[in-house]
Amino acid sequence: MVQWQLCTPENLMYSGFGRPFPRHGLQLLFWFSNQCVTCEVIQLVVTMKLVSDCQPENGNFGFHLFGNMEELLPVLSRPRKSRSKVTYFEVGNLSTETYPASANLPAYVRENYRPGVRSNNSNIDRIIIGYRVRTRVVETVYITEHDPAAFGRFRFDRTFEISCELIQALQNPQLDLTSFLIQMGYYVNVLQGIGETPYSDPSAQQTCSMVQYYSGSTQQPSSYEQHVHYSYNTSAQSGPAANYRKLPAYSYWKLPREGKPAVRVQFSFTCKSF
Which parts of the chain have pLDDT scores under 50? Predict the structure, then answer.
């Protein structure tokens, strides 16, 4: 059953949902909040409604019915009027073999997905909504994740309801995907993994610094690249640099803002030993 309702970004961070890399739940939730749902005040009540391009009943973006056979979520009642009927729909399965329309999810949601590699957890996160098809009203939003030890089952202890207030916080025009992922600690384990890299000098003092640099042209109408370079240094008190080692780069996409292009953000890591 649902553990609790998450009302703030801090609640979301402490829940551990969608992280660490290469999971996709945080990107999925950011997309849903900014591209799929609106928050409207109707009769003094904030109501969530899906935008016209997001139609779960038609399978858009890989949405499909969620049967709730395990009673992961509250059991839905059967109202007499079809207009008030609530149905559960699930989204987030990145397998295009199972749900071809999931290919239409943004690149920043899909790019870390590795088909056939179950051990990397790049396809375990899901969003489930309680949805009134006739009125397009979203009654409830839930986040959950598959249990790697129990194929096909969701984890009861990792299932949370998302409040409208949290959706609105993620819709803040001042919050971009880059800032959101960093705020949630999405890349912490990547940096820790770099910090655990063994070096021959046991007295090396390890520090981590970040340098941002940008590339791209304003002549590119659709997108430009933003590179974020992490330089990880291991240094003794003196002595010349002994070796450099560059780790694989990671990247994702920022959502386009009004009047601005989409942004691809690339993280690259270099380890230095002195």
Answer: 195-257, 260, 269-274
Q: Kindly provide the residue ranges of all beta strands, DSSP E only, lying in the chain, ordered along the sequence.
A: 5-6, 37-42, 45-50, 64-65, 87-91, 125-132, 137-145, 160-162, 205-214, 223-235, 243-254, 262-273
Instruction: Judge whether 214 and 200 are in contact, CB under 8 Å.
Output: no
pLDDT on residue 152? 77
Contact 180, 174 (CB under 8 A): no
Taking the model in full, what pTM does it have? Answer: 0.72
Beta carbons within 8 Å of 271's beta carbon, 6+ residues apart: 194, 197, 232, 233, 234, 244, 245, 246, 247
Residue 264: its pLDDT value, please? 52
Distance of CA 70 to the CA centre of its chain: 25
pLDDT tens digits for 147-197? 988 777 999 999 999 999 999 999 999 999 999 999 999 998 766 555 444
R_g over Cα of the chain: 21
SS3 call for 239? coil
SS3 238: coil
Q: Which residues pair with 254 in a beta bridge?
A: 263
Q: What is the pLDDT of residue 184?
A: 97
CA distance 181 to 18: 10
Say what the pLDDT of residue 118 is. 67
Are the C-beta atoms of residues 272 and 232 closer than 8 Å to each other? yes
- CA–CA distance, 10 with 18 (Å, rounded to integer): 14
CA 108 to each of CA 12, 33, 117, 203, 254: distance values in angstroms, whole numbers, following the listed order? 19, 14, 19, 40, 7
